[in-house]
Structures are given as structure tokens and as C-alpha cells.
Design goal:
The complex is a heterodimer of chains A (239) and B (108). With 239 residues, chain A is an all-alpha fold. Chain A contains eleven helices and no strands. The longest helix of chain A has 41 residues. Classes of the chains: A mainly alpha (239), B mainly alpha (108).
Chain lengths: 239, 108
């Protein structure tokens, strides 16, 4: 009985550890989610529709594009197809995180994957450094916190958006690149493969810029991730 | 305060095509023993994807390559990188980045 109580306590702690580890991303989510809510409102979505899109689609860049295309009266199929491409990068992140959840059944992994975002992926991969597996409860704590925060921010943007004319003046739009910078550096710091990682990172940046001349930004992210990871794999093999 | 059918279909459809790539690899690959080279490839995905996102946000903040001389985002990224490397704090990095861009835009 004692043992099971202990395990229970540990798992309980672990959920809240996930909540706590999500807190640094809250500011970023709030400002981007708020901006998404404003754009969705401007595109003519009702508050209920804003709530739905933030809960069902749950993807920053996807929601911005959806709002813009809905506002422009684009056909439904074109919108869905565009969002499929923009969010296809999740495929790579979901694959990269999968080795840490081998101890779970596929249905429980579906629950974890369904709330995967750029940010929760970044935080989770930092937590995974020097570990063989990630705690399911911890991941839920991280995911659910980010999810609720996103929903609240979207609704708030839909409600109060018209009163705040220029959020860029406060620099809040920089929360997103700021978060990606932090996640990138933390990831490198935990791996201690500085030379290879910097080479891979520079390749990814160069490729994403190069691809931008011939294709859209979301295609650039996918192409850059695939080629830069291959460079990393090859360099590690030759050494 | 209503949900229109046309909008619901768009939301539902885009949610579905987002959901599938999110869950398929983690549900399937966690069941399979991947070869060593594949694991090594996957271990570089976090660095690659974060670096690509950083590059896109900093160098192409408006969707296309921004001329260096008026790219404030790139300048604001320097203190953010510094704080990230020194403190290893995600929150600190975000806050310093926001403060930097705020000051830069105020001066510009």
C-alpha cells in the first residue's frame, strides 16, 4: 500500500512538474494566442468559432493562415490543403519524440501526440536529454497547460482585440522567436555536441532562407529539417 | 455567437489533417525498433527544426528576406542568445528578447 501511495504521489508531482516546466512558454503562448484571436475576430469568426478553432486546430501558424484565408473567402478545400502543409512538420517532431514513449500503448501515445506543438516539443526534448524515457504524467502536465493557455489567449484576443491597436509596440511579437532561440540553445547545451549541432543549425538556417525564394515558408521548415538532420547524421557517421 | 456550417467544416477539416501527422509517428514508431542510423537522424530533428524556425523568424520576419540594415529582430536576437547561453533560462531569454526589441523599436 505504501508503495502504491508513493507511486501515486510521484506521478502527481510529475504532472505538476510538467505544468511548472510549461510556465516559461506561457508568455509566448499568451501573446501569440492573443494575436491569433485578434486576427480570427477580424476575419469575421464568432467567439464560439474562435474557441473551436483554438481547441480543435490548436496550431499558431495554421490558425493565422486559416483566419487570413477565411477572411479572403478562399474555398474550404484550399484552406484545409494549405494547413495540412503548414502543419506537416509535426510529422517529424512526432517521430523524433517517439523513442521516449516506447513504454506506452499506441492509444496513450495518440493522446500525447494530439497536443504536440513546436514549443511543447522543444521543452520535452530538453527534458529528454540524458534520459531514456519521458513520464506520461509530466507530458500531460506540459501539454494541458499549454493547451488551456492557448485557448484562453485566443478567446481574450477575440474579446479585447479591438482595443489594442498595435501590440507590436510592446515587442510581444518577439516572444515567439525569443522562445525558439531559448529552446535551440537549451537543446544544444544539453547535448554537448556543439560543433556538429552548430553546423546542423547553420545548415538549417541557410536552407530555410534558400527555399524561401522558390517555395512557401512552411515547405522551407520541412525541407530544412530533413536536409539538416541528414547532414548531422552523416557527419556523425564519418567521425 | 453562432457556429456557421461552412466555418465548422473548415475548422474540422484542418484539425483532422493536423491531427494525423501529429499522432501517426508517435503511435506507430514507438512500437517499432528503429535502426541505429534512423535514431541518429531523429536525434538531429530538434536542432534542425528549432534552427529553421529561428532563421525564419529572424531573417524573414515578414515572409521574405529582410535587408540586414533594417532588421531589428536580428539585433534583438543577440542579447537573447547571450542570455540563453549564459543563464540557460527560457523565460529569461524571452523577456530579454522582448525588452530588446521594444527598446530598439522605440529608438528607430
Amino acid at each position: 500500500m505504501n508503495i502504491s501511495e508513493n507511486t501515486y504521489l510521484q506521478e502527481e508531482n510529475s504532472f505538476f512538474a510538467g505544468v511548472r516546466d510549461c510556465l516559461p512558454t506561457v508568455l509566448g503562448y499568451l501573446s501569440i494566442g492573443f494575436a491569433a484571436g485578434v486576427v480570427e475576430k477580424t476575419a469575421g469568426l464568432s467567439i464560439v468559432e474562435i474557441g473551436l478553432i483554438s481547441l480543435l486546430l490548436y496550431a499558431g501558424s495554421g490558425q493565422f493562415i486559416a483566419a487570413a484565408m477565411i477572411g479572403a473567402n478562399s474555398p474550404a478545400l484550399a484552406i484545409i490543403f494549405t494547413i495540412f502543409f503548414i502543419n506537416l512538420r509535426h510529422l517529424l517532431m512526432s517521430a523524433a519524440i517517439s523513442p521516449y514513449f516506447r513504454h506506452l500503448t499506441p492509444s496513450r501515445n495518440i493522446l500525447i501526440g494530439s497536443l504536440l506543438t513546436d514549443e511543447t516539443f522543444g521543452v520535452a526534448m530538453n527534458e529528454a536529454a540524458n534520459k531514456k524515457r519521458l513520464s506520461e504524467k509530466w507530458m500531460h502536465g506540459l501539454n494541458v497547460t499549454a493547451y488551456l493557455n492557448w485557448f484562453i489567449a485566443n478567446i481574450a484576443g477575440g474579446f479585447f482585440g479591438e482595443w489594442i491597436s498595435n501590440p507590436e509596440r510592446f515587442g510581444l511579437d518577439f516572444a515567439l522567436p525569443g522562445m525558439f532561440i531559448g529552446l535551440l540553445v537549451l537543446q544544444m547545451a544539453s547535448r554537448k555536441k556543439w560543433m556538429k549541432d552548430v553546423l546542423v543549425a547553420i545548415s538549417a538556417v541557410a536552407i530555410v532562407v534558400g527555399v524561401s525564394f522558390v517555395a512557401s515558408g512552411s515547405v522551407g521548415i520541412i525541407v530544412a529539417t530533413i536536409i539538416a538532420s541528414t547532414i548531422g547524421m552523416a557527419v556523425e557517421k564519418w567521425r | 455567437m453562432e457556429v456557421r456550417w461552412s466555418i465548422f467544416l473548415i475548422i474540422f477539416g484542418s484539425a483532422l489533417v493536423t491531427f494525423i501527422p501529429r499522432v501517426l509517428p508517435i503511435a506507430i514508431l514507438s512500437r517499432v525498433d528503429l535502426p541505429e542510423w534512423a535514431m541518429r537522424w531523429l536525434s538531429y530533428v530538434p536542432i534542425s527544426v528549432m534552427a529553421a524556425l529561428v532563421g525564419q523568424e529572424l531573417l524573414m520576419p515578414n515572409g521574405k528576406l529582410e535587408p540586414l540594415q533594417n532588421n531589428l529582430e536580428l539585433i534583438a536576437a543577440l542579447p537573447a542568445f547571450l542570455i540563453a547561453i549564459v543563464t540557460r533560462s527560457l523565460l529569461g531569454t524571452v523577456v530579454v528578447g522582448i525588452l530588446s526589441i521594444m527598446v530598439l523599436r522605440f529608438m528607430a
